[in-house]
Write a structure and sequence with these properties.
Order of helices and strands: HEHEEHHHHEHEEEEHEHEEH
CATH topology of the largest domain: Rossmann fold
Largest sheet: 6 strands, parallel
Number of domains: 2
Radius of gyration: 18 Å
Distance between the termini: 12 Å
Strand content: 15-25%
CATH superfamily of the largest domain: TPP-binding domain
Strand order of the largest sheet: 5-4-1-9-10-11
Oligomer: single chain
Structural class: alpha/beta
Number of helices: 10
CATH architecture of the largest domain: 3-Layer(aba) Sandwich
Mean pLDDT: 93
Number of strands: 11
Length: 239
């Protein structure tokens, strides 16, 4: 019944916001940040410390060694049917915005265009000297920290670290998409981490229908949301 209700809502919609989290990529074998792949503690250090702004300032080489470990785990992971379906929706709807909390780049690999990455991308570096962004698709890297091809400075991972704010321009674009959306589809996230979790609430306040696809309901869309319990890779192709 929920699937049919969601289909009916989507059939009449033009402006769509898709908001994805770790659960989508977990179905591709990507370890969640706090679990799987030994990612909670590495070399006896807590992952939150290794992924902190403070650590970039004190030991950039160690930060990159930790991120290279994570990138190595991701190298063999590919998009699943949920990523692929979302990519295809760009051609189905006249105005579709994809916002993700994930840093793994799997939406890009699936063919999604202009992805709003709230937390950055683990396959990019950002120069600490000139701010230039650079794709760093190979792992292991030939040197850590990697050098900027523009100015010769040192790159840091282009992800939002603990102690940092979301990129203002990306969040503004995501908020604008939420304000104009007719339907907001929340996939693979409990939507508990703010300010990112504000986006479905913004959409709902502006009259959007909320469709949630998760193994368990988060309640993010309120009592009027359409809840579909299940794996994203199973549910989204059916929509």
């Amino acid at each position: 019944m929920s699937i049919e209700r969601a289909k009916a809502v989507l059939d009449g919609a033009r402006r769509i916001l898709v908001f994805t989290g770790a659960g989508v990529s977990a179905e591709s074998g990507v370890p969640t940040f706090r679990g799987g792949g030994g990612s909670a503690v590495w070399r006896g250090m807590d992952a939150t410390e290794l992924s902190s702004a403070r650590m970039v300032g004190s030991d950039l080489k160690l930060v990159w060694e930790w991120f290279e470990y994570r990138r190595g785990l991701l190298a063999s992971c590919g998009p699943n049917p949920a990523h692929q379906t979302i990519a295809e929706w760009a051609d189905r709807f006249s105005d579709m915005t994809l916002v993700t909390q994930n840093v793994d780049g799997l939406h890009d690999k699936a063919g999604s265009r202009d992805v709003l990455e709230l937390h950055g991308n683990i396959w990019r570096g950002r120069c600490l000297a000139c701010g230039a962004l650079e794709r760093l698709d190979d792992t292991p890297l030939p040197e850590v920290p990697p050098s900027c091809s523009t100015c010769g400075g040192k790159h840091r991972p282009d992800v939002v670290l603990f102690g940092e704010f979301l990129p203002e321009d990306v969040f503004k674009r995501a908020t604008a998409a939420a304000e104009r959306a007719e339907v907001c589809i929340v996939v693979g996230t409990s939507a508990l981490v703010f300010p990112a979790a504000e986006l479905p609430l913004v959409a709902a306040r502006n009259g959007a229908s909320i469709i949630e696809v998760n193994p368990e309901p988060s309640g993010i869309g309120g009592p009027l949301s359409i809840m579909i319990e299940g794996r994203a890779g199973d549910v989204l192709p059916r929509l």
